[in-house]
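Researcher: For the record, we're logging two predictions in this thread. I'll number them. Prediction 1 follows.
Model: Prediction 1, sequence and structure:
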Amino acid sequence: MSPPVPSAEREPLFVPKAMTTVVVAALGACVLVNVALLVAQLRLYRAAHGSYAAFEREIWVGNLTGMRLFAFLLTGFVFLRWLWQMRVNAEALAPGGHRMKRGWTTGAWLVPVACFFLPKRILNDIWAASSPADRPRRTGVLLTSWWLLFVAAQLLDFPSTSRGPLSTEMAGAALYVVSGALCIRVVRRLAAMQRARLRGATGEPVC
Protein backbone atom coordinates (compact mmCIF):
# COMPACT_ATOMS: atom_id res chain seq x y z
CA MET A 1 0.00 0.00 0.00
CA SER A 2 1.47 3.34 -1.02
CA PRO A 3 1.59 6.09 1.63
CA PRO A 4 -0.88 8.98 1.39
CA VAL A 5 0.25 11.86 -0.78
CA PRO A 6 -0.39 15.58 -0.20
CA SER A 7 -3.75 16.67 -1.55
CA ALA A 8 -2.74 20.19 -2.55
CA GLU A 9 -2.50 19.29 -6.24
CA ARG A 10 -5.54 17.05 -6.23
CA GLU A 11 -9.27 17.41 -5.79
CA PRO A 12 -10.45 18.31 -2.28
CA LEU A 13 -10.35 15.28 0.01
CA PHE A 14 -13.23 14.91 2.44
CA VAL A 15 -15.77 12.39 3.66
CA PRO A 16 -19.14 14.07 3.03
CA LYS A 17 -21.20 13.64 6.20
CA ALA A 18 -24.36 15.04 4.65
CA MET A 19 -24.09 12.83 1.56
CA THR A 20 -23.33 9.78 3.70
CA THR A 21 -26.46 10.50 5.72
CA VAL A 22 -28.52 10.88 2.53
CA VAL A 23 -27.19 7.58 1.16
CA VAL A 24 -27.97 5.77 4.42
CA ALA A 25 -31.47 7.28 4.47
CA ALA A 26 -32.09 6.29 0.83
CA LEU A 27 -30.92 2.75 1.52
CA GLY A 28 -33.17 2.64 4.56
CA ALA A 29 -36.11 3.71 2.38
CA CYS A 30 -35.28 0.88 -0.06
CA VAL A 31 -35.27 -1.60 2.82
CA LEU A 32 -38.65 -0.37 4.05
CA VAL A 33 -40.19 -0.49 0.56
CA ASN A 34 -38.94 -4.04 0.10
CA VAL A 35 -40.32 -5.05 3.51
CA ALA A 36 -43.71 -3.61 2.53
CA LEU A 37 -43.52 -5.36 -0.83
CA LEU A 38 -42.63 -8.69 0.79
CA VAL A 39 -45.61 -8.38 3.16
CA ALA A 40 -47.91 -7.56 0.23
CA GLN A 41 -46.56 -10.54 -1.72
CA LEU A 42 -47.15 -12.86 1.25
CA ARG A 43 -50.74 -11.63 1.55
CA LEU A 44 -51.27 -12.15 -2.17
CA TYR A 45 -49.77 -15.63 -1.93
CA ARG A 46 -52.29 -16.55 0.78
CA ALA A 47 -55.31 -15.08 -1.02
CA ALA A 48 -57.68 -17.43 -2.85
CA HIS A 49 -56.97 -17.38 -6.59
CA GLY A 50 -59.48 -15.28 -8.51
CA SER A 51 -61.01 -13.73 -5.39
CA TYR A 52 -61.62 -10.04 -4.87
CA ALA A 53 -59.02 -10.06 -2.08
CA ALA A 54 -56.46 -11.44 -4.52
CA PHE A 55 -57.33 -8.72 -7.04
CA GLU A 56 -56.99 -6.04 -4.38
CA ARG A 57 -53.67 -7.38 -3.13
CA GLU A 58 -52.37 -7.70 -6.68
CA ILE A 59 -52.86 -3.94 -7.08
CA TRP A 60 -50.90 -3.33 -3.87
CA VAL A 61 -48.04 -5.51 -5.09
CA GLY A 62 -47.98 -3.69 -8.43
CA ASN A 63 -47.94 -0.26 -6.80
CA LEU A 64 -45.17 -1.23 -4.38
CA THR A 65 -43.14 -2.75 -7.22
CA GLY A 66 -43.27 0.61 -8.99
CA MET A 67 -42.34 2.43 -5.79
CA ARG A 68 -39.37 0.11 -5.37
CA LEU A 69 -38.11 0.90 -8.85
CA PHE A 70 -38.27 4.63 -8.07
CA ALA A 71 -36.49 4.09 -4.73
CA PHE A 72 -33.75 2.09 -6.42
CA LEU A 73 -33.14 4.72 -9.09
CA LEU A 74 -32.95 7.52 -6.52
CA THR A 75 -30.69 5.50 -4.23
CA GLY A 76 -28.45 4.50 -7.12
CA PHE A 77 -27.93 8.15 -8.06
CA VAL A 78 -26.94 9.34 -4.57
CA PHE A 79 -24.89 6.20 -3.87
CA LEU A 80 -22.80 6.63 -7.02
CA ARG A 81 -22.25 10.32 -6.26
CA TRP A 82 -21.04 9.36 -2.80
CA LEU A 83 -18.90 6.50 -4.14
CA TRP A 84 -17.19 8.89 -6.58
CA GLN A 85 -15.89 10.99 -3.69
CA MET A 86 -14.79 7.82 -1.90
CA ARG A 87 -12.79 6.91 -5.00
CA VAL A 88 -11.22 10.39 -5.18
CA ASN A 89 -10.12 10.01 -1.56
CA ALA A 90 -8.88 6.47 -2.15
CA GLU A 91 -6.69 7.55 -5.06
CA ALA A 92 -4.90 10.01 -2.78
CA LEU A 93 -4.52 7.41 -0.04
CA ALA A 94 -3.22 4.73 -2.41
CA PRO A 95 -2.18 6.25 -5.77
CA GLY A 96 -1.03 2.93 -7.21
CA GLY A 97 -3.68 0.75 -5.63
CA HIS A 98 -6.43 0.93 -8.25
CA ARG A 99 -6.78 -1.56 -11.07
CA MET A 100 -9.37 0.39 -13.07
CA LYS A 101 -9.67 4.04 -14.10
CA ARG A 102 -11.89 6.37 -12.13
CA GLY A 103 -14.58 6.55 -14.81
CA TRP A 104 -15.42 2.91 -14.14
CA THR A 105 -16.60 3.91 -10.65
CA THR A 106 -19.93 4.76 -12.27
CA GLY A 107 -19.59 3.11 -15.68
CA ALA A 108 -19.05 -0.41 -14.32
CA TRP A 109 -22.60 -0.50 -12.92
CA LEU A 110 -24.08 0.13 -16.39
CA VAL A 111 -22.36 -2.66 -18.36
CA PRO A 112 -24.56 -5.74 -18.81
CA VAL A 113 -23.18 -8.91 -17.14
CA ALA A 114 -19.97 -7.09 -16.13
CA CYS A 115 -22.06 -5.15 -13.59
CA PHE A 116 -22.11 -8.33 -11.50
CA PHE A 117 -18.36 -8.26 -10.82
CA LEU A 118 -16.64 -5.04 -12.02
CA PRO A 119 -18.16 -2.76 -9.33
CA LYS A 120 -16.96 -5.19 -6.65
CA ARG A 121 -13.44 -4.99 -8.10
CA ILE A 122 -13.54 -1.19 -7.77
CA LEU A 123 -15.03 -1.38 -4.29
CA ASN A 124 -12.29 -3.80 -3.24
CA ASP A 125 -9.63 -1.29 -4.26
CA ILE A 126 -11.39 1.56 -2.43
CA TRP A 127 -11.76 -0.66 0.64
CA ALA A 128 -8.05 -1.56 0.57
CA ALA A 129 -7.00 2.09 0.21
CA SER A 130 -9.27 3.08 3.09
CA SER A 131 -8.23 0.32 5.49
CA PRO A 132 -5.52 0.98 8.12
CA ALA A 133 -2.15 1.58 6.47
CA ASP A 134 -0.49 -1.16 8.50
CA ARG A 135 -3.26 -3.68 7.75
CA PRO A 136 -4.40 -3.15 4.15
CA ARG A 137 -7.25 -5.49 3.19
CA ARG A 138 -8.72 -5.59 -0.29
CA THR A 139 -12.05 -6.84 1.00
CA GLY A 140 -13.83 -8.01 4.13
CA VAL A 141 -16.62 -10.32 5.26
CA LEU A 142 -19.10 -7.43 5.45
CA LEU A 143 -18.32 -6.12 1.96
CA THR A 144 -18.34 -9.57 0.34
CA SER A 145 -21.52 -10.69 2.12
CA TRP A 146 -23.38 -7.58 0.98
CA TRP A 147 -22.22 -7.95 -2.61
CA LEU A 148 -23.09 -11.66 -2.89
CA LEU A 149 -26.59 -11.08 -1.48
CA PHE A 150 -27.09 -8.02 -3.69
CA VAL A 151 -26.13 -9.94 -6.84
CA ALA A 152 -28.31 -12.90 -5.81
CA ALA A 153 -31.26 -10.54 -5.30
CA GLN A 154 -30.74 -9.02 -8.76
CA LEU A 155 -30.59 -12.42 -10.40
CA LEU A 156 -33.81 -13.47 -8.69
CA ASP A 157 -35.82 -10.28 -8.99
CA PHE A 158 -34.22 -7.27 -10.67
CA PRO A 159 -36.21 -4.13 -9.72
CA SER A 160 -38.59 -3.34 -12.55
CA THR A 161 -42.28 -2.85 -13.20
CA SER A 162 -42.48 -6.30 -14.80
CA ARG A 163 -43.61 -9.29 -12.78
CA GLY A 164 -42.21 -12.81 -12.43
CA PRO A 165 -43.24 -15.91 -10.45
CA LEU A 166 -44.50 -14.81 -7.04
CA SER A 167 -42.21 -17.17 -5.11
CA THR A 168 -39.18 -15.79 -6.97
CA GLU A 169 -40.33 -12.22 -6.32
CA MET A 170 -40.70 -12.97 -2.61
CA ALA A 171 -37.20 -14.47 -2.41
CA GLY A 172 -35.78 -11.46 -4.26
CA ALA A 173 -37.53 -8.97 -1.97
CA ALA A 174 -36.25 -10.82 1.11
CA LEU A 175 -32.69 -10.75 -0.21
CA TYR A 176 -32.98 -7.04 -1.00
CA VAL A 177 -34.04 -6.38 2.60
CA VAL A 178 -30.97 -8.16 4.00
CA SER A 179 -28.53 -6.80 1.39
CA GLY A 180 -29.89 -3.27 1.91
CA ALA A 181 -29.26 -3.50 5.65
CA LEU A 182 -25.72 -4.76 5.00
CA CYS A 183 -25.11 -1.98 2.46
CA ILE A 184 -25.93 0.60 5.13
CA ARG A 185 -23.21 -0.93 7.29
CA VAL A 186 -20.78 -0.94 4.34
CA VAL A 187 -21.38 2.76 3.69
CA ARG A 188 -20.92 3.71 7.32
CA ARG A 189 -17.83 1.51 7.74
CA LEU A 190 -16.15 2.81 4.59
CA ALA A 191 -16.86 6.42 5.57
CA ALA A 192 -15.42 5.81 9.04
CA MET A 193 -12.28 4.14 7.66
CA GLN A 194 -11.62 6.96 5.21
CA ARG A 195 -12.23 9.58 7.85
CA ALA A 196 -9.64 7.93 10.09
CA ARG A 197 -7.11 7.59 7.25
CA LEU A 198 -7.53 11.16 6.07
CA ARG A 199 -7.29 12.48 9.62
CA GLY A 200 -4.05 10.57 10.05
CA ALA A 201 -2.69 11.79 6.73
CA THR A 202 -3.41 15.49 7.30
CA GLY A 203 -3.39 15.71 11.09
CA GLU A 204 -6.50 17.89 10.84
CA PRO A 205 -10.21 17.23 11.48
CA VAL A 206 -11.98 15.71 8.48
CA CYS A 207 -15.53 16.67 7.51
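Researcher: Logged. Prediction 2.
Model: Prediction 2, sequence and structure:
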Amino acid sequence: MPATKDRTNRNRAASRPSRPFTLWREVLTAYAAPALMAGTAGVVTGQQDLAVAACTTIAGTSAVVAFLVGTWLRHGGQPRRWTTTTPRVALTAALVITTAGTAALLGWFTAQWIPAHTPIPATPWLERLRIDLPVSATLATTIVTLRWRSTTTASRP
Protein backbone atom coordinates (compact mmCIF):
# COMPACT_ATOMS: atom_id res chain seq x y z
CA MET A 1 0.00 0.00 0.00
CA PRO A 2 1.53 3.35 -0.98
CA ALA A 3 2.26 5.88 1.73
CA THR A 4 -0.05 8.84 1.74
CA LYS A 5 0.57 12.20 3.24
CA ASP A 6 -1.66 13.17 6.11
CA ARG A 7 -2.65 16.74 5.38
CA THR A 8 -5.19 17.04 8.17
CA ASN A 9 -2.56 18.13 10.70
CA ARG A 10 -1.36 20.91 8.42
CA ASN A 11 -4.90 22.07 7.76
CA ARG A 12 -5.70 22.10 11.47
CA ALA A 13 -2.56 24.10 12.24
CA ALA A 14 -3.31 26.58 9.47
CA SER A 15 -6.90 27.07 10.57
CA ARG A 16 -5.99 27.52 14.24
CA PRO A 17 -5.90 31.24 15.07
CA SER A 18 -2.67 32.54 16.57
CA ARG A 19 -2.72 34.05 20.02
CA PRO A 20 -3.41 37.78 19.85
CA PHE A 21 -0.57 40.20 20.48
CA THR A 22 -0.88 41.20 24.12
CA LEU A 23 1.69 43.80 25.12
CA TRP A 24 1.92 43.00 28.83
CA ARG A 25 2.51 39.32 28.03
CA GLU A 26 5.25 40.21 25.54
CA VAL A 27 6.94 42.52 28.06
CA LEU A 28 6.76 39.91 30.81
CA THR A 29 8.28 37.31 28.49
CA ALA A 30 10.93 39.77 27.37
CA TYR A 31 11.96 40.20 31.00
CA ALA A 32 11.65 36.61 32.21
CA ALA A 33 13.34 34.76 29.34
CA PRO A 34 16.72 36.55 29.41
CA ALA A 35 16.67 36.80 33.21
CA LEU A 36 16.27 33.03 33.51
CA MET A 37 18.73 32.14 30.75
CA ALA A 38 21.50 34.59 31.62
CA GLY A 39 20.93 34.13 35.35
CA THR A 40 21.24 30.38 35.01
CA ALA A 41 24.39 30.77 32.91
CA GLY A 42 25.85 33.12 35.52
CA VAL A 43 25.14 30.71 38.37
CA VAL A 44 26.37 27.62 36.49
CA THR A 45 29.61 29.28 35.36
CA GLY A 46 30.18 31.05 38.67
CA GLN A 47 29.99 34.54 37.16
CA GLN A 48 28.24 36.55 39.83
CA ASP A 49 28.28 39.72 37.72
CA LEU A 50 26.40 37.92 34.93
CA ALA A 51 23.81 36.60 37.39
CA VAL A 52 23.22 40.14 38.70
CA ALA A 53 23.21 41.68 35.22
CA ALA A 54 20.70 39.06 34.10
CA CYS A 55 18.00 40.52 36.33
CA THR A 56 18.99 44.16 35.91
CA THR A 57 20.54 45.46 32.69
CA ILE A 58 19.90 42.45 30.46
CA ALA A 59 16.29 41.65 31.38
CA GLY A 60 15.43 45.27 32.16
CA THR A 61 16.60 46.44 28.76
CA SER A 62 14.71 43.64 27.06
CA ALA A 63 11.48 44.54 28.86
CA VAL A 64 11.80 48.27 28.16
CA VAL A 65 12.60 47.71 24.49
CA ALA A 66 9.76 45.19 24.13
CA PHE A 67 7.35 47.72 25.64
CA LEU A 68 8.55 50.60 23.44
CA VAL A 69 8.64 48.60 20.20
CA GLY A 70 5.33 46.86 20.93
CA THR A 71 3.64 50.15 21.73
CA TRP A 72 5.06 51.77 18.60
CA LEU A 73 3.98 48.86 16.40
CA ARG A 74 0.46 48.78 17.81
CA HIS A 75 0.14 52.55 17.27
CA GLY A 76 -3.04 52.86 19.34
CA GLY A 77 -4.67 49.79 17.80
CA GLN A 78 -4.27 51.07 14.25
CA PRO A 79 -0.92 49.93 12.88
CA ARG A 80 0.82 52.12 10.35
CA ARG A 81 0.16 50.87 6.84
CA TRP A 82 3.83 50.53 5.91
CA THR A 83 4.53 48.31 8.94
CA THR A 84 2.01 45.76 7.72
CA THR A 85 2.97 45.89 4.04
CA THR A 86 6.76 45.94 4.37
CA PRO A 87 8.27 42.46 4.16
CA ARG A 88 8.69 40.93 7.61
CA VAL A 89 12.48 40.62 7.33
CA ALA A 90 12.92 44.21 6.16
CA LEU A 91 10.71 45.60 8.93
CA THR A 92 12.51 43.54 11.56
CA ALA A 93 15.94 44.55 10.23
CA ALA A 94 15.03 48.26 10.20
CA LEU A 95 13.72 48.16 13.76
CA VAL A 96 16.67 46.08 15.01
CA ILE A 97 19.19 48.48 13.50
CA THR A 98 17.39 51.42 15.07
CA THR A 99 16.99 49.95 18.56
CA ALA A 100 20.40 48.24 18.71
CA GLY A 101 22.12 51.41 17.50
CA THR A 102 20.29 53.52 20.05
CA ALA A 103 21.04 51.03 22.83
CA ALA A 104 24.71 50.84 21.84
CA LEU A 105 25.01 54.62 21.93
CA LEU A 106 23.24 54.73 25.29
CA GLY A 107 25.52 52.02 26.70
CA TRP A 108 28.66 53.71 25.41
CA PHE A 109 27.55 57.15 26.63
CA THR A 110 26.59 55.82 30.07
CA ALA A 111 29.84 53.86 30.51
CA GLN A 112 31.82 57.01 29.66
CA TRP A 113 29.70 59.75 31.18
CA ILE A 114 28.88 58.33 34.62
CA PRO A 115 32.51 57.90 35.79
CA ALA A 116 33.53 61.24 34.29
CA HIS A 117 30.70 63.29 35.83
CA THR A 118 29.76 61.51 39.06
CA PRO A 119 31.64 60.09 42.01
CA ILE A 120 30.85 56.57 40.74
CA PRO A 121 34.09 54.97 39.54
CA ALA A 122 34.43 53.04 36.28
CA THR A 123 33.47 49.50 37.19
CA PRO A 124 33.01 46.26 35.25
CA TRP A 125 29.20 46.55 35.43
CA LEU A 126 29.37 49.90 33.64
CA GLU A 127 31.53 48.36 30.93
CA ARG A 128 28.96 45.55 30.58
CA LEU A 129 26.42 48.13 29.42
CA ARG A 130 28.24 48.44 26.11
CA ILE A 131 27.37 44.81 25.35
CA ASP A 132 24.25 44.12 27.44
CA LEU A 133 22.13 46.96 26.08
CA PRO A 134 22.51 46.40 22.32
CA VAL A 135 22.31 42.59 22.57
CA SER A 136 19.17 42.77 24.73
CA ALA A 137 17.62 45.37 22.43
CA THR A 138 18.35 43.26 19.36
CA LEU A 139 16.77 40.12 20.79
CA ALA A 140 13.71 41.88 22.23
CA THR A 141 13.07 43.86 19.04
CA THR A 142 13.37 40.80 16.83
CA ILE A 143 11.04 38.68 18.91
CA VAL A 144 8.41 41.36 19.48
CA THR A 145 8.40 42.47 15.84
CA LEU A 146 8.09 38.95 14.48
CA ARG A 147 5.42 38.08 17.05
CA TRP A 148 3.43 41.23 16.32
CA ARG A 149 3.73 40.77 12.59
CA SER A 150 2.53 37.16 12.79
CA THR A 151 -0.64 38.27 14.59
CA THR A 152 -1.35 41.14 12.18
CA THR A 153 -0.81 38.89 9.16
CA ALA A 154 -3.12 36.27 10.60
CA SER A 155 -5.86 38.79 11.33
CA ARG A 156 -5.89 40.35 7.87
CA PRO A 157 -8.65 39.12 5.55
